[in-house]
Structures are given as C-alpha cells and as structure tokens.
C-alpha cells in the first residue's frame, strides 16, 4: 500500500456530492388518462419516466360521469401542491385536453412542459360518428363537448409537444371514416393545433401509444429540452 492510498479521507468531502444531488429539487410529472380509461393504463409510461429521474403521479377522474372540469380543478391543485423544480403534464387522448385547459391563461402555476399523446385537439371524428348512433352521446357523457369541438389554438407560455400515432388499428375505424394517417381512433390531422411547439408521429395505435418505448423516449426528450430529439437520418 502506498503512502497516498493510506491518506485519510475527509468524510464531509465524500458526502458533499450526494448531498448536493439530494438537495436539488426533483422535477415532477403528472399523468392523465383518456376517456373510458383509468390511471392503471399509464403505469408503463410512469415506470419509464421514473427511470429517467422524474417523480410521477397519476390523476384518475370520472371522464364520462363528471367530464373534464373537475379534473382541471384538481390538476391545478395538485400542481400548486408540488415542491419541485418543475411540474410537467403528460396526457393521453382526452387527458391532453385536461392538461391544456388546466394551464390555459392561469398564472402562478409551477413551470413545466406539456406532452400530449394521441390528442383529439381539433375534435374527434370518431366521437362525432358515435353520436349518430342511438345512445352514442351517452357513452361520451360529460366529456362530449370537448371531444366533439376540440380546443382553441394554444397561446400559453408553456411549451407543448404532441405525439400522434399512425398505426391504423382500433375500434374507431368501425364507426366512420378517419382521415389517414391515423391511429385507429384519432387522425394525425386532429392532433395538429396552432401554437404547439413540436409534433411527432410514431408507428403505434391509439392504445399502443401508452406502451411504446419510442413514445416514452420522446416524452422524456421533450420534458428535458422543450422539443423532441431530431429524427435520425
């Protein structure tokens, strides 16, 4: 053993890097599911986000019986309750509309980005087709209006990234024509909205978007940089 290796190590110096890491505010992500779904469907995405270093929670809401407004109110409360360096929102389908409406024109919320996955931002042709069937509107419940009408152009300060699917498999194609490309439920055209920061399409169906490793990687990239990673050439 050399003289240098026997030199005592100051334990305070050894602990300093870890202490600095622990004291840094962790960034938080809130996940929101779509209509007819529950938070459990977001577990694979939540796991990938935790592996990337984020703390994660999921908000469950009664999409049919209560609509999006109670979820909007609860989401704002959860955002304000967080002691984090940033609070990001990630929504699937209808959950994306909840995320946008919760932050639209609202001051005093923590900073952070928004990722919308398979969102019917311009309204859903499948939802409109469903209302043509007896009892179809009842299946949409209190979320009928946002699904039929979509949302206004985005003018908020938060950066918004949109991921759309283009694998045409899903119940939606049995209800009526969808403009191609689409994910079986939402067309790529319906996911495009003036004011968003970035847009990407992937080979996944509407439900498959939730289990796609590519979607998870794109989500992490956007939350870190405010844009999606460049498409490989």
Q: Beta-sheet strand percentage?
A: 5-15%
Q: Write out the strand line-up for the largest beta sheet, numbering strands in chain order.
A: 2-1-3-4-5-6
CA radius of gyration is 21 Å
Count of spatially separate domains: 1
- Give the CA-based shape: globular
Largest sheet: 6 strands, parallel
Q: List the total number of helices.
A: 8
Highest CATH level, the class: Alpha Beta
Structural class: alpha/beta
Low-confidence regions: 1-24
Distance between the termini: 52 Å
Could you give the count of β-strands? 6
InterPro entries: AB_hydrolase_1 (IPR000073), AB_hydrolase_fold (IPR029058)
Organism: Dokdonella fugitiva
GO molecular function: hydrolase activity
Keywords: Hydrolase
SSE topology:
Blueprint: H1 11-23, E1 28-32, H2 43-51, E2 55-59, H3 69-81, E3 87-92, H4 94-103, E4 114-117, H5 125-130, H6 136-140, H7 144-149, E5 160-165, E6 198-202, H8 213-225
Helix pairs in contact: 3-4
Region (Disordered): 1-20
GO molecular function, one term: hydrolase activity
Keywords: Hydrolase
Key structural traits:
single chain, Rossmann fold, 6-stranded parallel sheet, 32% helix, disordered N terminus, AB_hydrolase_fold
